[in-house]
Amino acid sequence: MQRLLCVTAHPDDEAAAFGGALLLYQARGVETSVITLTAGEAGSRGSAKSREELGQVRRAEFAAACDILKVHYAEVLGYPDGGLVEVPAAGPIADLVFRIRRIRPQVLITFAPDGATGHRDHAMASVFATLAFHWAARDDRFGEQLTTDVKPYQVQRLYYLTSTFEFPGRRRLCPAPTSTILDVHDFVEEKIRAFQAHRTQTSGVVESVIRQQRGLETYHLAAACTPTTTEAANDLFSSVVEEFV
What we know:
- Strand 4, helix 5 and strand 5 form a beta-alpha-beta unit.
- This protein has a single domain, classed as LmbE-like (Rossmann fold, 3-Layer(aba) Sandwich), CATH 3.40.50.
- By secondary structure, it is of the alpha/beta class.
- It has 7 helices and 7 strands; from the N terminus they run E-H-H-E-H-E-H-E-H-E-E-H-H-E.
- About 30% of the residues lie in helices and about 20% in strands.
C-alpha cells in the first residue's frame, strides 16, 4: 500500500494548496492522510462569536473538505492559530514523529519554509514537518514513543509545495525551485469544491489562484532517503519502493 501524508498549518490549506495531489493519488489507490497543526481559530469568523466557537466550526469544515478529498485519515492537532512561531518546537515535532511512525507514509508533502504566501504558520509547519521527516527514523529521537507497535520509520521523500508565479499584492518570496509538476486537470473542480466546504474562509481570490495554476500543482523535492540528483518528474512516488529498509 502506498501512503501519502500531508502536513498543513490550518483547515483549508489541505484543499486550497494540496487538494489536487490528494485527489490525484487517492484516485490512484494511494492511502492519503492530512494533519493540520491548528484549528484555524484566528481566521475569518463568519458568524462565530469567539475563537473557540470558530475553532469548532473550522474543525467541522475540515472534516467536510476531507470527505470531498476522500482522505483516509485526517486530524487537527490544536496548536494555537497564528502562534506557531512561539510554540516550543519539541511538542509539534514529537506529535508529527509519532503520527509518521503510525501512518508510515512513503511520501510527505508540506509547505516550503517561505510559507507559500509568506504566512508564518505555514513556514513553521514546514520546519516542524521537515524535522519530523528526518527524526521519525531515528531511535534516539522521542524514544519514549517506541513500543512493539510503534517503531522508527523512514519516510522516503519529502516535498515542499512551491509556485511558478507570484501572488499579486504580496511581498516577494523566494520559493524553492520546482522539481515535480503534477497534472491535476481532472480534479480542479473537486479541489475548489473541497475549498468551498470551508465556508468561513470562502474566497474568490483563492479560487482564482487555483484556476491560474491551469490544472497543475508544483512541488520541490526537499529530501530523499537515498542519495539522488534532482530531475524533472511528474510523480511524487517516482523511485519510491513499497517499504524502505
